[in-house]
Amino acid sequence: MGTSSRTQIYSVAALAVLAVLWGAIPLFVRNDVPAVGLVGVRVTFGALALIAVAAALRKLVFPKVRRWRLLLSGVLLAAHWVTFFQSIKLTTVAVALAVLYIGPIAAAILSGPLLGEHVAPRLWGALGIAGAGTVLVVQPWVQMSQQDGVGITTEGIIVAGISAALLTALMLVGKPIAKDLGGLTMAIGELAVASILLVPATYQAITQYSEFMVNFLVLGAFFTGFAGFVYWEAMRHLPVAVVSVIMYLEPATAVMWAAVLLGESPNITTWFGVGLVVVGGTVAATVSREKDLIGVPAAL
Hints:
mainly alpha
């Protein structure tokens, strides 16, 4: 097994673990902190944690290339998270997730013409399986039938759609940056830019909701800073389509976290959907080892 193949396998494994951990994020955000404030503390503490680590390792550098794209990625990140949290306020979590995860599919489709990546046919099947599984997990039709005229709005669906589009753009813009600068510099750059944009919201969250400081630190330093580094480091070595499939584990495992830690009881359809997501991820992991999967990225 060549070095490249081993790197791809490790990247898939790291990304899968990350997606499972990200599924636990709702456990840290079930509070009264405004959505923009939560995003602010995420990116701020995440940036500070990575800057400290990079400085300690003497790997803190100011990039000489792709600066404007790094700036753009930070803006896209902040806008994506703010619109996603806002969509949850305007509609149900299930509907927001169902719409949001159109984003990875769009990124996979556009990775060919924009990044020059060749996607193996079986990977399209894996993407379809994972996408279908996610729909069965979140079951937006159940949420709709249970609503009594509020909670599901056209505005909420539109905002979730905007968040999905921003996620697509972030994946496509960020891939070449991470490939050139490395996952650490990429994560620090985008988080630093996003934190600057959200300084007022961050200050308000820290001063008015200090009782959640431990949650803020864990959410920012671990689930955002360290996780962002792992995500972009994996993105360097994997096609966007593979990353898209693996990340469908996030909403799927959120159900399992809720069942284990919150005592929620998913129905059989939900567990079937989780199984489909796992199958899709497994197929993507095997396809990622094929030598002809990764093409030479074109300039974005």
